[in-house]
Input
Amino acid sequence: MASVLYASRNGTYDEFVEQYDASSADREKLLVSALTHPEPVHRVAIATRLLDDGADIVEAERRHGAVLLSLLPALRHDSALEGPLVQRLVDGGADVNALERRGDRPINYVIRMSLPDEERGPFYRALFGSGRLDLAVPADPRQPDGPTLIEHLLANPETQKLPVLRDHLVRWAADHQSSQG
Output
């Protein structure tokens, strides 16, 4: 019989529920594990169950790392399923500016998703709509005097091909500039 941790990361929702005991489970650890599940339908169902049962997003990040950096690098995404989950994570305090060891942030993973730009809308809305997204940080953390993330993204030819993203970037830049002046 598989462990609940294994089931959260690799099993179906039903297999997870068979192993899961809400009264004794480390919901935060299981949440981070569930967010790495390769299948969006199970990822969302298991993570939603854990959140419904009281998994604390901020505590999960404190103990186990950034939840968005667990979810967004997945190879397969379904924005209709995952959009509400990402919004719930962000609303619950997930770090929209988390920096992983290679220098990527949640926005970098959304940009690299193998979804059409318009299908990434729920992810963009969650990140940009949080009011906490900071694109004025260095694009490369190893080069603090280099271009900011917003400068890099606006100048990047790849983002020219992503009109929904570009609209969010331009709006963010305008809002940030007006708040600075």
In short: The first helix runs from residue 4 to 10. The two ends are 61 Å apart (CA to CA).
